From TrEMBL:
It comes from Croceibacterium soli. Is synthesized initially as an inactive proenzyme. Formation of the active enzyme involves a self-maturation process in which the active site pyruvoyl group is generated from an internal serine residue via an autocatalytic post-translational modification. Two non-identical subunits are generated from the proenzyme in this reaction, and the pyruvate is formed at the N-terminus of the alpha chain, which is derived from the carboxyl end of the proenzyme. This is Phosphatidylserine decarboxylase proenzyme. It comes from the Bacteria. Its cofactor is pyruvate. It catalyses: a 1,2-diacyl-sn-glycero-3-phospho-L-serine + H(+) = a 1,2-diacyl-sn-glycero-3-phosphoethanolamine + CO2. Pfam families: PS_Dcarbxylase. The gene is psd.
Amino acid sequence: MAGDLLDNRGRGHAEWGWPSIHPEGRKFGLAAVGVSLIFLLLFDWEIVGWPLLLLSLGVFAFFRDPERVVPQGQDFIVSPADGLITQIGQVAPPVELQGLDPQDGIGLGSEPVTRISIFLSVFDVHINRAPVGGTVRRVVYIPGKFTNADLDKASEENERQHVLIERSDGTVLAFTQIAGLVTRRIVPFIKPGDILAAGQRVGLIRFGSRVDVYLPQGTDPKVLLGQRVIAGETILAEIGRQGLIEGVSQ
């Protein structure tokens, strides 16, 4: 059940279950089922109907929305997306996140920070979650292109949405949802002023995409290039903790 407190002392209740389908995806799945049934029942075109029926199952699977167990550490930054870590590096934050908006006066500044890029394939869960708990200070949507989200230039050219969150201690963190090659819409669930818990659902990106996370100054990542992460569960970093880590691909 959602909201159960699970820990390493056996408290709580956990069981496997089919993940729910997010309402945003039900209309697409039902439409695909409807079209496939028309070809199968009305036209008897099995060569078209059966592939469309299989495609409809894929659509439902794409919009699956599984429950996640969020680590409850005060300074944990959890992954906002399922996917593959494809880039880790020092970059200047996007201008939309640097603090140029006079309405809130809050931003990341112009100094380089560590950016972690997570690439989502069409097989990944596309529900995005809040990396930290806090107040949403800024949501900025920018129209753009639909190039391969795995390319570095996607952060500046593709359709994208920036989200800036301020924690109760004043620490500011941001992430960016980036549309991919076949993505055609970023769907937000939040707005400025909303108060979030870490791991709370904040939006989704349709059909392949990328999410960039901008860590606060003085914070090093606890993940590596090539590592797969799970939204709301994998710890990307711990605020204020530094130190390089290494891993071996096997």
